[in-house]
Amino acid sequence: EVQLQASGGGLVQAGGSLRLSCATSGFIFGDYVIAWLRLGPGKGREGVAAIQIRDGTTRYSDSVKGRFTISSDNAERTVYLQMNNLKPEDTAKYYCAADGQMYLATMIDPFSAVYEYDHWGQGTQVTVSS
């Protein structure tokens, strides 16, 4: 059974930091891209970061570039999202998702709002107060 378990959300003041974790099981970790996406109040789905596990290629949305860092611990099958200098507009429920078809190095828009990922986790809430 494929599982993605997101954790680490919480309430933080603007300018603060959080680290999200996505623990995975049930699939060949190295064959997948793991992405972090968010769904904010009144907003559509937004992809923020993704990592190609096999070669470590990363991609970021412009809204988080320079503030968020995605990384993976392959031995633990866990992907992290370090979020620094958080802003109120980062408030959202954050999900991790896995896909076996993406190739980040050449993909024009890895954060397309209509892309259908193979597997999803349950989400973790991040709230940033001003």
Short description:
This protein has 130 residues and is mainly β. It is built from no helices and 11 strands.
Descriptive labels:
130 residues, globular, 48% strand, single chain, 4-stranded antiparallel beta sheet, mainly beta, 7-stranded mixed beta sheet
Account of the 3D structure:
With 130 residues, this protein is mostly beta strands. The protein has no helices and eleven strands. The strands form two sheets. Strands 2, 4, 5, 6, 9, 10 and 11 form a seven-stranded mixed β-sheet that branches. Strands 1-3-8-7 form a four-stranded antiparallel β-sheet, with no helix packed on it. A hairpin with a 5-residue loop joins β4 and β5.
What shape does the CA trace take? globular
Helical content stands at under 10%
Question: Class by helix and strand content?
Answer: mainly beta
Number of helices: 0
C-alpha-based Rg, rounded: 14 Å
User: Per DSSP, what share of the residues sits in E-state strands of 2 or more residues?
Assistant: over 45%
User: Span between N and C termini?
Assistant: 40 Å
What is the residue-mean pLDDT, rounded to a whole number?
Answer: 96
List SSEs in N-to-C order.
EEEEEEEEEEE
For the biggest sheet, the summary is: 7 strands, mixed
The unreliable regions are none
Find the count of extended strands (DSSP E, 2+ residues).
11
